User: Fold these one by one.
Assistant:
Number 1:
Amino acid sequence: MSMIYQLYEANRALLNPLAEFSSASSKLYSHPLSPFTHTPLAPRVSAGLNLMHRLSKAYEKPEFNIHTVNVEGVDVAVQQQVTIDKPFCRLLRFKRFTDNLPMLKRMKEQPTVLVVAPLSGHHSTLLRETVRELLHDHKVYITDWTDARMVPVEAGAFTLDDYVVYIQDFIRHIGPEVNVISVCQPTVPVLAAISLMASRGEKTPRTMTMMGGPIDARLSPTAVNNLAMNKSLEWFENNVIFRVPTNYPGSQRRVYPGFLQHTGFIAMNPGRHAQSHYDYYMDLMRGEDENADFHRSFYDEYNAVLDMPAEYYLDTIRVVFQDFSLVNGTWEVKGELVKPQDIKTTALLTIEGELDDISGAGQTRAAHDLCSGIDKKHKLHYDAVGAGHYGIFSGRRWREKVYPQVRDFIANNQTRSALSVTRARTKPTALLGKSAPPPLDLTPVVKAPRKAPVAKAAAKTAPVTKAVAVAASKPARRAAPKARPAK
């Protein structure tokens, strides 16, 4: 078992020439100027070789590729900038530029959002759609976690406590006007980070939005939760932790390898993935380029995985899924007790997907009970009807149902903060003759209107993610493309 990472790297080195040969040969049978294109079996040969190329190639980290965005009808340029560069994470900012002065002024007044991406197998580009939608109405930052195999051992270990400290550093850098959005796994460390800041008397973010995370993994446990709960910590350490080979900068670092996580993803739904690849082959033969492009874009993201630091991964298993330290009130981060009840000035929004098979019903909503210091009128919970784990932060349901809730919640609390500051600094007579601002109406539970039967919606949800990797509460995996994605 100790050599499994080295064997994987040797196998990948052997397959690389095959992948390149398959790609070149596929083009030989599909290029319009090639004489082989006009042979009777050319479409089948080209499609088969193309599929072989995709099955044997190595997948690197994708790019965000967000270069423009439309803001209130005006197309503005977007530049990706590195604001903070730490050994295990970079803080990225998507800065918007425009020559339209009125629009520039409006963009400067828009709220600031920090998106905390999961460190649980996939790269932060999994939240590409989340970032793109937020850019319409916000200034956006995102955490971009580094592949642990690329971090030299001299940088030291990275634990769950270090994750919490990173989040606090990012919040302080951006400022207390920030609105924090955490997706899946980071909901727990983000809640801890803000709780500790509140306990110390520091200014906390204006809002925190938690989406599909295991705040209380005891509630409605899923297959992912059961795996983490039923195996001992020693089992995970002995079976999924390996050292990085010498051909990477992080040589000899203990990690949970990305290729093992990917194997777990596939093992959860092997039939669906096999059918997806067969459909891709048929689409290539029939010349249905749109369906084939959809397949490629999905698997380019799905197959790109990163290694997780062993210390962080094992900490997450213990704290979140075995000891339930956060909800039991026993979690200490670098000697400080995490007390969510100390948060008083940060509004709370929780979001769950009706068909989420990664974080069960009620697991994220449990944050409301823990954050007892927040006034009820500044709490909101939203159930996304018909949405799976992936659907709450990407795809049509994210754009049409979930994002409007997030946008309005953030906007309402920016107004509330501004009004409270104005009232504190303005004499009462200054408001005479003016009507009072309307009170906030934050409904405790909001549900999206049901447009389709649950059975039909379930067919569109993301598959259950990995068998082992998601023990760290893997973020949602984008569902494998169906045989015929809608054009």
Number 2:
Amino acid sequence: MRVPLSAPAAADRTAARARWPSPRARGWQPLLVTVLLTVSSMCALSLGTPYVPPHRLAGAVLDGDTTLAGIVVTELRVPRLVLALIAGACLGAAGLVLQEALRNPLAVPEMLGVSSGAALGVAAPLVLALSLPAAVQPLLAIGGAALGGGLTLLAAGLGRSPSAVLLTGAAVAAALQAALLVLMVMADQLDLQLVYRYLLGSLSARTWEDVSGLWPWLLVAAPALVLCAPVLSVMRLGDEDAAALGVRAQRARLAALAIAVVLIAPVTAVCGPVAWVGFLAPHLARRFNPAAGAVRWLPWSAVWGAVVVTVADVPARLALAPVETPAGAWTALLGVPAGVALMRSGGRGRTPRRRPAASAAVRTLLHGPRAVTSGAADRTPCTGAQKNAHRDGPGGALPLSSGTRGTTGTEDTP
């Protein structure tokens, strides 16, 4: 028997849909992303010392090593811009993978021990004066990130409870950050400055060699993301429903963690833990298309991550010129309030749905089974005798206690 929704429930659902962005508003997302990327890229390539006008950028790139502007643009600013785009895309995609796999909008690399573990793996050889080739640093970062994320999942029972994962991850991240503080105490003055700037996430003095070291890991992570996206959509249904559809939740979470580690660790090895990009980018992707799933959110989360890091790197380089500030400080300064605002606005837009089936069951237990008719019969006026007959039923009057008059439903008044 189908019980229609009550008027308040229908109104709540209509209001929730009204708060979602319309198709026209979702159409603004590509335009907004294009404008932000274009403006931030032009600022990143033109502004600074020396200043290169936008109409001379093409000539400066073609000149190459022949002029000062060509050297600065091609050897410093372009690789820094490319690194910002790649790092932001990796962090944004990794943030969405973790949030969807753990069904928690706060499941970000910074809160799960992944970023702290990767930073610890890179900073420890530097402070301990261990001479290692540059190609080994991504491997050390991957080992540290896998250690931090693995400890979080194992201590939280492989993610059975999203809140337990978040609390356990915060504890693991705090322990790893304490280890980083011990390393900073052991470092000398020069190493301390390098480690401090690295731990805040900086794109300063990065070259094409740093960018080229990320491509092998991207070739591994990109196909894994394509295969992981449909599984993330199933994981949103819950462990039991996912198991009914043939997805093993624990193995899926471990696979999602492995993909996130491969995305985060190489970026952290190059430019440090750029904070809270994996928190803000997925929320921006959901905000513009909340009715979509992980398959559509994943590319937009990567795009928004690239936008966030590229935009944040402009004030990081120019706000206190000639001194450069870490880009991670700006992403944390701007990303956390914006992400919280997006979560609050999204929470107000989603009202809990009422369960009419449960209300029907309660009415059945209290008043017994009654036939529900629809159509013209519902609108036919009844006389007083018919109302009494309808209420009393064939078996006589049904006693109603005073506590049952306030139940939901279409109860007849005496």
Number 3:
Amino acid sequence: MEFLLIAALIAITVAMVNRSQNKGQTQLQAHQNRHLEDYRAEASRWVERLGGQVFNIDGIDDASKQAMADASERYTSAVAELERAQTPVQAQLAKDTALEGLYYVRAAREAMGMDPGPELPATPGQSRAGRVTEDRTVEVDGRTMSAATGPSDQTPHYYPGGVVAGRPVPAGWYSEPWWASALASGMWMMSSMMMFNMMFAGMAGVGYSGEDFASGVGEGGADMGELGGDMGGDAGGDDGGFFDGGLFGGDGGDVGGDAGGDGGGFFDGGMFGGGDGGGGFFGGGGDGGGFFDGGLFDF
């Protein structure tokens, strides 16, 4: 009789373990799918907004034409990134690309004397990169390079500010896209630090040196921490997991996330008691007693 009771108890335990694991996995997957769809919907909103501008605005001079060409390129990239997005991080990248494209649209509108439109959210690394706050012209490797606060025939190339190949590029208008080769290849030329020092040293809107530029100060990687924290903090199901509010108890957060359920678990308000579940097999919790404590066997 005792052997049969133990065998039955083991069978019940295994069944509860499997059920708890399957339920937790299903809830986690469902939550992740909802989370991804939220990020995709947000990215889609910005991509569509960019597309509306790209298809309806034509530049009238070199600066506005170049800015709209860059906006169009960002739109194409954002659409492709959104179609491939299988995680919230990938959907966020599509949103950031679309926002960058909208900054180019604002620049084009500004160059044409139009209302630039509403302010946009900052893109990753943008605030750290700084911005051009005064017009400058320098000689670098035998060529003349200029940076300016606004568009002109001498400075028709705009950059909204951000990180390119691990280094910050201040927002502003330039005589040439000196970041373009690094954007395409992922590598900077040896002379880039010297150019940066000559162009931006002492500029109020750029609070770092060429040496800092070369070491990646202003790099926008930390901006993704907010995304990661949000995704990690919210993930999970409502009834806890194997040890936390599932099989072994606890208050059952959203599988490592926000709120807590009262379902109890295997050891905590579930099989072995505790928590809010009203006791378990081996007691210790709630009003109902346990299997061995106030239940089948009352010690």
